[in-house]
Amino acid sequence: ISNKLYQSFREKYSYPKIGDILISAAGTIGKTVIFNGEPSYFQDSNIVWIANDEKKVINGFLYYYYQTEPWIATKGSTINRLYNENIRSLKVTYPDISTQKQIAKVLSGLDAKIEVNNKINQELETMARTLYDYWFVQFDFPDTNGNPYKSSGGKMVYNEELKREIPEGW
After folding, report:
1. Burial of 161 (0-12, 13-18, 19+ CB in 10 A)
2. Which residue of 10, 33, 81, 144 lies most exposed, with the fewest beta carbons within 10 A?
3. How far apart are CA 145 and CA 166, in angstroms?
């Protein structure tokens, strides 16, 4: 939508605050994210959020509580939906604020470690693919002197079965 229309909707309708928990309310219901303040459009009822009193339950705790998928959806003819009544009927049990903060801190720390590990795994996978390509597609594996085999003049022979040149002796 245009920025002008977006701004008019922001003025007319409610809008989440930074830190509010956004909940998917259609299709795959109950998926949650913590709103980071990035300009977004929320007026189609597929995304909902709860105006939460953080004097009782902090959003960080609610985020992880909602991860347990406590939602009971209304079965529609084509897609599941989470309606206001479904949300209102959810009974949230919670410990004191101090314990909530500890729980949220531990779980967010684990999430951060998981994210770092996923990035490391992606980087290692990229490196493995690159290494595979150099060694087994381009045949530039280290020769006996540590130089790249093919580009250092390693002997290549045509292989009839593979219909391409490969290092001699392969």
Report:
1. exposed
2. 144
3. 19
In this structure, how many other beta carbons lie within 10 angstroms of the beta carbon of residue 100? 21
Tell me 17's DSSP state. P
CB-based burial, 133-148: b 16+ in 10 Å, e otherwise: ebeeeebbeeeeeeeb
Closest to 22 (Cα-Cα) out of 48, 56, 45: 48
Along the 170 residues of the chain, how does pLDDT read in single tens digits? 788 988 888 888 888 889 899 988 888 888 888 999 887 776 667 888 887 889 999 999 999 998 887 877 776 667 788 888 888 888 888 999 999 999 999 999 999 999 999 999 999 999 999 999 999 999 999 999 999 999 999 999 999 999 999 999 88
CA distance 66 to 81: 16
Give Rg (Cα) of the chain: 27
**pTM for the full model?**
0.70
Q: CA–CA separation, 39 vs 28, rounded Å? A: 23
